[in-house]
Amino acid sequence: MAEAILSISSKNYGSWSLRGWLLCKFAGLAFAEKVIPSDDPSIRAELLLLSPSFLVPCLTHDGVKVWDTLAIAEYLHEIRPRAGLLPADRAARAHCRAVSGEMHSGFSNLRSALPMNLKARYPGFKVWAGAQPDIERVIAIWRECLAAYGGPYLFGSKPGMADAMYAPVVSRFRTYGLPLTGPAAAYAEAVWNDPDFQLWYEAARSETLRVPKYEVQKAT
């Protein structure tokens, strides 16, 4: 039996759950999944983006309960330092924390205009003008990190904390047919084709939960 339990929501819509799940996978932590029913208030808060602080994902491990995604990342880094969730270099580590924190607390226009829906495809989707600066900032972060650390992931040769934080955005670019070129496009492909991400995606494809708000192409 796995020594840890990760509580999550929908695999199709739950962007924060995806982040926490990838963090555990990237850290090499054995864990069991506990899927919270969709009518639970904490799940609705995550799926409908009703709160900046969600109670899922939640990691229970060795008598410790951690429910904030960045806190989960830092906890995993403490118990699994050799996994490389954060870079070994101090300056790179600070950079990783900064871009991860930016995703954790920002990009509200992108979230509301382009909610995560892994199974959906909306080619030609017209992006609300208010979300465009968020999209451009995400691409700028990716390009800066890839240029500084050599790729294929944001901080080098293996996925880590920052990649888990930006993975749901990678899925949004694909869902809504947003164009990417050069290093940013290559990065998005690397994340999408990552074996752990693909495990989550395959499970999302068979999920039956439906949130109508995210199944209709929004007018913009």
Account of the protein in words:
The protein has 220 residues and is α+β, with helices and mostly antiparallel strands. Helices cover 49% and strands 8% of the residues. Helix 1 packs parallel to helix 3, helix 1 crosses helix 7 and helix 7 packs across helix 8. The mean pLDDT is 91.
Features:
single chain; globular; about 220 residues; alpha+beta
Task: Give a quick summary of the entry.
It contains nine helices and four strands. The chain has 220 residues and is of the alpha+beta class. Strands 2-1-3-4 form a four-stranded mixed β-sheet, with helices on one face.
What's the tally of helices?
9
Question: What are the low-pLDDT stretches, counting only 5+ consecutive residues below 50?
Answer: none
- Strand residue percentage: 5-15%
The oligomeric status of these chains comes to: single chain
Total DSSP E strands: 4
Average pLDDT: 91
Largest sheet: 4 strands, mixed
Name the helicity range: 40-55%
The largest sheet has its strands arranged as 2-1-3-4
Order of helices and strands: EHEHEEHHHHHHH
Distance between the termini: 48 Å
Radius of gyration: 16 Å
